[in-house]
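= Protein in question =
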Amino acid sequence: MRKISIAVTTFALLPHLLAAQAQNAAPARYNVINLGTLGGVLGSFAHSINNEGWIAGVANLPDDTEEHAALWRDGVVADLGTLGGDNSNVNSPVKNNNGLIVGFAQTSAIDPLGENFCTFTCNDANGGACNGSDQSCRGFRWRNGVMNALGTLGGNNSFATGANNRGLVIGSAENSTQDPNCIPPQVLDYKPVVWHGGAIQELSVVDGDATGAALGVNDKNRVVGASGICGSGPALGPVPVHALLWQNDAVSDLGSLGGVVNNVAYAINNTGQIVGTSDLPGDNTGHAFLWQNGAMADLGTLPGDLLSVANAINDKGQVVGQSCDVNFNCRAFLWQSGVMTDLNNLTSPSSLYLLVAYDINSQGEIVGFALDQSNVPVAFAAVPCGQNENGQSCGDPAQTAVGTERQKIVLPENVRRSLQQRLRFRQPRFGP
């Protein structure tokens, strides 16, 4: 098993570094593409885009009672299938450029403990569960049309969240420990893991934490994620406590923005910059953060919002995520050069309202999900002007980069419920 290695130099200079980055370089303007579904009418979500332009996520099937992992490539959407069960998903930025896609899928086996480890909602109007909620769930590797299951640590379930260009796959897997502190229906503890060459390796967590997940990996085999508790009461549920970095077979706590819980590192680029979300003092809300050179900086929110989450970062230091108000009305954001901008204000005229940006590649192409004019969630790709295959522009190139400010919308109640289930902010199990 290849070691996870990194050399970290610690400086207390991040505020000065951010100030130096705050240059006058304006963000690009974008054309927005509705990626479509697998035949369902209730939506799709794009969670990953690699440097080859492969987009992966999840989309409803025609009856809207099942959802499958989907791959959008060269204008065509493909169903990646399942491991014998009803549903599957690619729920995180994968980051592999060599045709490897990872995620999680239900098997044909019934979970003997009834845990419903991987939640599928099929985007229905009431946020209800999909078919097959009693099936076990396993992480998968997909390449060249073939999906293979990934192992566990002795439990019944696992999920995969990312893969780098060296073939290292990351995620979380159950062990056989029945934890009385878990909130039902969860029974077993689950640990952060890496898979490589057919073998699974457990990563250590902070002392006192029972559960965890590896959520982001770069091409230097640096891994980030979180660990925490399986639950301490029905009102709290499973909660990530520590945002983590794994290096040289050791784990480091990245700290927080002052909060005690809900600290998660979601992504790391090849320069070692890390993004995620962290609670503020009092743990009443959390903000997106950027960690670099040993220090964590608060990226704030869009004007008028209460909370934010950074989901991904590319090697240029561009960060994407979502910013939400107190009622969970959310907007996709792009952060660069020290400034957070509503992605809706950077787009050419579109019928879509961009709610969440999940990933960004080295070309600055962004994917996530939006609402169409019927308030249905749909997967989108935002392509910098002139970069798509048709070479479309965003109008007069002499115009400023930022378009006309779009009015913030109030989401329908069912969309907010679905959004809270879908978004990774404060989500149980830190992943799916």
The chain has one domain: 14-430. The first strand starts at residue 30 and ends at 34. The longest helix spans residues 413-422. The two ends are 26 Å apart (CA to CA).
